[in-house]
Amino acid sequence: MVGVDQVLEKLATVIDPDLKKDIVSMGMIKDLELNSGNLKFTLELTTPACPFNEEIEADVRKAVDELEGIEDFVMKVTAKVMEGRDLAADEVMSTVKNVIAVASGKGGVGKSTVALNLALALGKTGAKVGLLDADIYGPSIPLMLGMKDAGMQVKKNDDGIDLLEPVESNGIKVISFGFFAEQEHQAAIYRGPIISGILKQFLTQADWSNLDYLIVDLPPGTGDIPLTLAQTIPITGILVVTTPQEVASNVAVKAIGMFQKLNVPMLGVVENMSHFECSKCSEKHYIFGEGGAQKISEKYNLPFLGEIPLNSGIMKGSDLGKPIMLTQPDSPSAKAFTSSAKNIAAQCSIQAAKLQEEMQAEAPPST
Ligand code: ADP
Hints:
alpha/beta; Rossmann fold; 23% strand; single chain; three-stranded mixed sheet; nine-stranded mixed sheet; 2 domains; GMP Synthetase, Chain A, domain 3
């Protein structure tokens, strides 16, 4: 008769391709019951957005199939996003499991477009997502979501403290510098300390409760905002958005250097406007050159997380408040956003696993 130990031993042959660890030691098998050959358990994946979820589930089924003496098998599959930041060290945002800061060397490379569509793509997988538009010099998220006139509400939390209430849009919680600037470009004239103060308020005095991923759309380049962000809360990592042109001009490289100095983890690079895909023949045309961002990621040892094609629908949709993830979910661009979002979620899980290991190594031995 097969026993629980044998089942666990067999399940431990299934390796999470991202985390490079077996699913049993990662604690992904829950509520296991085995009665007279009837096996039941829950497979708890590390994020609903993992690119390998289907593969892991299939490997688990195969492993159980190979066990002798299993009469009946029921598996529930769920996902619980891992904590990719040290929540114990963050008193004010202790229920936000991951903070992903989206950066670029210069403006106009599509950083906000990428941040928004990634947020929507993650939200579509079932994850709870927030989007903080911290691009003080051009807060474009309100326009891109068709919520330019959205006003912010303040509400009291259970302890009677006033908190900004993010605006809900398509299932994601949004706060933008743009909601506060009365005139266009007004925000950009504030001096550094004031800008830092406002960002701190958006982070620490807003209701970001229970989020799996908070995406922060940083201003382009290096300045007060990324510095304040890194110094105010622990963040999971930085995602760098580049275009082939930006790669050619070396601006992205400078930004990567500055973020590495800040000592925050780098999640990887996404190349935007990387190619044009012909709608008739589906051929990819690398108008601005091919493989630039890939080379950067190799040189700096950063994961290459995806390439987003040029698509006039992205630009038109942005101006009309209709993001391509929502209006053309089957387009090559939307599929590229989804695949990049999954790769980013996987990188967050990798950061989370590293963090877990570090914490276990630091914990005093139990007596
Ligand atoms: P940034 O945040 O880097 O300044 P934006 O996201 O505001 O850049 O994008 C700049 C412009 O480029 C916008 O008009 C946007 O709609 C357009 N854009 C971004 N990505 C693409 C793309 N892949 N294809 C076509 N247009 C794009």
